[in-house]
Amino acid sequence: MFFKYAKFFVLALLVASLLPACSDKSADHITMMPLDQMPASVQSAPVAVQQAYQFAAANPDIMKQTPCYCGCGAMGHTSNYSCYIQSADANGSITFDNHALGCSICVDITQDVMRLQREGKSIQEIRAYVDTTYSKYGPSNMH
After folding, report:
1. Staple partner for 27: which of 34, 108, 115, 120, CB 3.0–4.6 Å?
2. Is the dihedral of CA 87, 93, 99, 100 positive or negative?
3. 138: alpha, beta or left, given left = phi > 0 and alpha = psi -120 to 50?
4. Element (H, E) at 87
5. Contact in structure between 62 and 87 (CB atoms under 8 Å)
6. In the chain, where are the structural domains located?
7. Are 111 and 46 a contacting pair, CB within 8 Å?
8. Is the dihedral of CA 48, 37, 31, 139 positive or negative?
C-alpha cells in the first residue's frame, strides 16, 4: 500500500516541478491585433500573412525599427511597418497598406521578428538578424 502512494507522490512532485517551466510564457508571448479587426483582404490571406499583419498592427514600436529589403523604399516605405500600415491616427484608427499581401520578403521579415521576439531577443539583435539575413535582396528602406 505504501509503494502505491509513494509512486503517486513522486509522480505528483514530478508534475508539480514541471508546471512552473511550462506555465512561464513571458518570453513566448507576443501581442497580436485580433483578426476580426483586419480588412477582409487580410482575413482571407494565408495564415502567415494574417499573422504578420496582426503583429505589425499591434507592435508599431518594434516594426518601425525593423527595415524591409524588398525594394519598397522606392514606394516611400520607411520600415517593415510601412509594408502593412499606411497610417495610424491618435485615436487608433488604422489605414492598412496592401503591399505585404503580395510580398513574401515583407512577411518573412515579420515572421522572423515574431520568432525572435518570442525567443526574447532585443530589438538590436532582431535588427542585426534582419540586416544580415535580408540585405542580399536589396537596399534597406530605412535611412
Report:
1. 120
2. positive
3. left
4. strand 85-88
5. no
6. 28-137
7. no
8. positive
Element (H, E) at 58: helix 47-58
C-alpha cell at 86: 499606411
Residue 85 half-sphere exposure toward CB, CA atoms < 13 A: 24
Tens digits of residue pLDDT in 86-121: 999 998 899 999 999 999 999 999 999 999 999 999
Say how far apart CA 123 and CA 114 lie, in whole Å.
11
Q: C-alpha cell of 31?
A: 501581442
Question: pTM of this prediction?
Answer: 0.80
Nearest to 31 by CA among 97, 106, 117: 117
